[in-house]
Amino acid sequence: MLKAYKYRIYPNSEQALLIEKHFGCSRFVFNWALALQNRYYKIFGKSLSRTQIQSQLVKKKKSAKYAWLNEVNSQSLLNALLNIYTAFTNFFKGRSRFPRFKSKKIPGRSYQCRSKKPT
Fold this sequence. Notes:
The chain has 3 helices and no strands. By secondary structure, the chain is an all-alpha fold. The longest helix is centred in the N-terminal third of the chain and has 32 residues, at 13-44.
């Protein structure tokens, strides 16, 4: 059985900055992966696999231009890729609409980090 917990936090200014970085980087990776999938589908008529997108992200993080992606937890970025992959899978199976780009202006921002199960 899966359980979910909601917490209200009161971060200090340093923690708030790190949380904002996670929001921005997750949104950037989601939008980048969506654009990548759209281009690939228009050219080749099929979608990229999850591992192909992840390898592209690793290459992007190694470049100096996108070094700022290394400042946040990599799990949150991989989870953004998982979200876009799931959105495309659901769309092609007829379960949802086509995924849309995420905006800075919409207040429903989130990112996910998975932690180990407590022992």
